Amino acid sequence: MNQPVEKTEELKPTGVSFYEKRKKIFAKSVRGLFDNWRIALVILTQALFYGGLWLEWNGRQAILLHLVERKFYIFGMVFWPQDVIYLTALLIVSAYALFLVTAIAGRLFCGYACPQTVYTQIFMWIENWVEGDRNARMKLEKAPMDARKLRIRATKHGLWLIFSLWTGFTLVGYFTPITELIDNVKTGNLGPWETFWIFFYGGFTYLMAGMMREQVCKYMCPYARFQSVMFDPDTLIVTYDPARGEPRGARKKGADTSKLGDCVDCGQCVQVCPTGIDIRNGLQYECIGCAACIDICDQVMDKVGLPRGLVRYSTENALEKHLSRKEILAHIVRPRILLYTVILTVIIALTAWFLAHRIPLKVDIIRDRSTLAREADDGRIENVYTLQIMNTEEQPHRYKVTVDGLNGVEVAGNNEFEVPAASLQGFSTVVRVEPDAGKQGANQIHFEIVAADNPDIKVREKASFMLP
User: Fold this and answer.
1) Is-contact 430 451, C-beta < 8 A?
2) β-bridge partners, 376
3) Average pLDDT over residues 90-106
4) Whether pLDDT at 162 is above 80
């Protein structure tokens, strides 16, 4: 018997988005203790960045990473490509310092000194100055495009672009002498790479600090993703105290508030957050630790007559165990912190020691391979060498070259060479020795190059002397 065929509803494909649609954030301005710290750090970091390239040292730019000359001038020190080890040490110190700060106080760097945060803060100051406070900006966003809105938006973006290009110009000024760069701009002789980097860095400053803002912190910055590895229950973080704040509710006149917590559910902490999160939902990777929510919550607590600290810097252990401030500070010293501190201290100490004892002289010795050995007029055997002498100090030196390692070995002819300040010079020198002074083939000898005006500046390098 034929069974009736049951009709099934046709399944239609549905689209699933893996990306959250961006909701534009209108962060409210707030003043307070932590905002004052943030302003101070913005001023300090930008004073160093924009003002650093105008400092002079020995008649030159104090900080100049001169790529064309392949010399990095840092005040009284000159670094060459051979000094890349110091760059490595700097990067390691920076990494461990970041690990240490994060383990102690969470994303403190993100909230106060990260370039993305700093420039976003500056762009927001410009935005508030041109468009007004949060409510004014929200009204302007909803308003139709007319002459007034076009004028305000054009003014804001124009100031953003000027500031961004100035930032890009300043960056390039650390790689090309700033006076030379200004002259090139005035005469229209700006090089292609300089033009590229001014607009490239300026464009990304405008894009990230002006347009993308919190999207960079939420989706592009890797630090937000691996920060949890450096967190532990004793790490200081910006946190909400649910035991004190819940259940939340508004304080209405005449209403019974005895069963309510201290949180008045005003939403101010969300309005001031630059990434748009609600700190009352617990620790979130989007939180950059700027503490704007602490400043605004303390002000609200003052208005309603409740104690400050509903939102505060604390730790997971402190909230769970109700630790006092003294007990929180006592938990800062723990194995992880001690390990980071010891490693950081050792690396800094070693780097400082090597910098203090760095010999401002580098020598490369290249034996002439076209002629392995030849007999001189006096019957001795001679080899020809090229000495590449690098004077890394900003004063000229005269160097004396001696050689040892074989009986009677000596430098034939001139053995003193003048090398200008912060320069590399190549010199050809001849070394002679008696035919029976060594074995047939390669014999090891040593060159010693000593500054005539300072015996402490000396380098000893080995080389091979060929005997037929």
Assistant:
1) no
2) none
3) 91
4) yes
pTM score of the predicted model: 0.84
Going along the chain from its start, the domains and CATH numbers come out as 232-323 (no CATH), 361-467 (2.60.40.10)
pLDDT value for 453: 87
- Angle among Cα 306, 32, 222 to the nearest 5 degrees reads 110
Q: What's the rounded mean pLDDT across residues 253-273?
A: 86
Amino acid at 289: G
What is the 8-class DSSP label of residue 250?
-
Report how far residue 234's alpha carbon sits from residue 328's, in angstroms, rounded to the nearest whole number: 8
- DSSP code of residue 209: I
Query: What is the full DSSP assignment across 395-430?
Result: S-EEEEEEEESSTT-EEES--EEEE-TTEEEEEEEE
Residue 256 has pLDDT above 80, yes or no: no
pLDDT greater than 80 at residue 428? yes
| Cα atoms in the Cβ-side hemisphere of radius 13 Å centred on 466 | 13
Task: Give the model confidence (pLDDT) of 332-371 as tens digits.
Answer: 888 889 998 999 999 999 999 998 888 888 999 988 877 7
DSSP 8-state code for residue 230: G
Question: Which class for 186: exposed (0-12), middle (13-18), buried (19 or more C-beta within 10 A)?
Answer: exposed
Distance between CA atoms of residues 15 and 86, nearest Å = 52
Task: Taking residues 385-410, report their average pLDDT.
Answer: 90
Average pLDDT, the chain: 89
